UniProtKB/TrEMBL annotation:
The lineage of its organism: Bacteria, Bacillati, Bacillota, Bacilli, Bacillales. Keywords: DNA condensation, DNA-binding. The keyword DNA-binding applies. The keyword DNA-binding applies. Belongs to the bacterial histone-like protein family. GO terms for biological process: chromosome condensation; DNA replication initiation; gene expression. GO terms for molecular function: DNA binding; identical protein binding; structural constituent of chromatin. InterPro entries: Hist_DNA-bd, Histone-like_DNA-bd_CS, IHF-like_DNA-bd_dom_sf. It comes from Paenibacillus stellifer. This is DNA-binding protein. GO terms for cellular component: cytosol; DnaA-HU complex; HU-DNA complex.
């Protein structure tokens, strides 16, 4: 399922216009992105938690040339599923 499919499904199930659903979804995603960029955690009880995790720096190789390169440490987004979501999937 992609974003368009999600918007269509929510619109059909709730009797809302696709434009309204898209506005809410974009706002939701924007708020999560903004919180994570500040280093905050977003916890949705029963669904899951969005957070950032620090990835250590490491060395890698350029696959085309074989040259060794240093990859700096970085923050990466992570999601941990909540209990109700885990139950629904299983």
């Amino acid at each position: 399922m992609n974003k368009t499919d999600l918007i269509n499904n929510i619109s059909e199930k709730n009797g809302l216009s696709k434009k309204d659903v898209e506005l809410v979804l974009n706002g939701f995603l924007g708020e999560i992105t903004e919180a994570l960029s500040k280093g905050d955690k977003v916890q949705l009880i029963g669904f899951g938690t969005f957070e950032t995790r620090k990835r250590s720096g490491r060395t890698g190789r350029n696959p085309q040339t074989g040259t060794v390169i240093d990859i700096p440490e970085s923050n990466v987004p992570a999601f941990k599923a909540g209990g109700k979501l885990k139950e629904a999937v299983n």
